[in-house]
């Protein structure tokens, strides 16, 4: 009992209990409110359409644009559509080939081509695969009587010039019936192309894993450095201490990528990007995490860790790894643009799955802006703090 009394006379005991409660409250609140009504915002996802067939294929596209609960965009060339898919401006392409009508009129199977970008949130990929299957079934259901009509029309034209003797008429009737019965109710097949597909199931979780490990690591590091700073703040000036912390942050941010890349190689996570590109991107991302976590601690002290717990939860929700951030509510969607995990996750999709290298440049630039802004805020916060009175503190380690 004496040990229990001693523990409850220490402030850190209560802080630990409060942190446990805060984790539960914060994660439940943010995750439940952010993901509420996700299915109602499916129309925020965009599907691209391209029809090279001016006949029935174009009619199919027109019908799908009216019936599908998604934003739709028409493309005039397959190259243009694939570029938009590669840059994640659209989630899927529905492509009708030029011979679509001809295949149906000939009684053969027509084909619809679906292209789904795998460098995307898990929910978006699974939704698009489900849509592809559903669209094919609905098109088959719609076009089956159409193809029957086309066959009837073809036979009527073919045999209208024949003599109408009874025996010939019977043969024609039997032939027509046999042909119509031979028409398949599955007149349209589907081909699903998964672009930017990475080998191995584990690769799908790399963006999420890197985000969690990097920001949690940044939180713990900043917390420990804050405690160290409180011990020595009476012996050095506030500016000397602040700049020393920044040097440590930069050093760790540019050393850690070597471990990250090494672990990716160890677990056979391949990438089409160069070592230098991955190294710089990971360094900028971790530096941005450190700067963000540091701001709250410098302004609020140890209480800033509560804000960092909020930042962790918000970044996991809005990063676009589990759910596309375009499907989040307006508040969370706008908030995502201010958080480094959004750009970190998008960049790692390009690193792991492939895609436009331009996105890595854009994401790195956004991370650079976050670093500059958070460093500026931290500098102002330090400037406004009153310096501690210098004291002689014995920092020697006892023998």
- Content of β-strand: 5-15%
Strand order of the largest sheet: 2-1-3-4-5
Query: What is the overall number of helices?
Result: 14
Order of helices and strands: HHEHEHEHEHHEHHHHHHH
Query: Strand tally, please?
Result: 5
Largest sheet: 5 strands, mixed
The gross shape turns out to be elongated
Distance N terminus to C terminus?
32 Å
Would you give an account of this structure?
It is a single chain. With 399 residues, the chain is of the alpha/beta class. It has 2 domains: 2-34 and 201-384, no CATH class; 42-195, abc type-2 transporter like fold (3-Layer(aba) Sandwich), CATH 3.40.1710. Helix content is 65%, strand content 8%. The chain is built from 14 helices and 5 strands. The chain has helices spanning 2-7, 11-34, 56-67, 78-86, 100-105, 122-159, 166-182, 206-232, 238-266, 275-300, 304-318, 330-336, 340-353, 357-384, and strands spanning 46-51, 71-74, 92-96, 110-117, 188-195. The chain has a 5-stranded mixed β-sheet, with helices on both faces. Helix 10 runs antiparallel to helix 11 (304-318), helix 10 (275-300) runs parallel beside helix 14 and helix 11 (304-318) crosses helix 12. It is elongated, with a radius of gyration of 31 Å. The model is unreliable at 390-395 (pLDDT under 50).
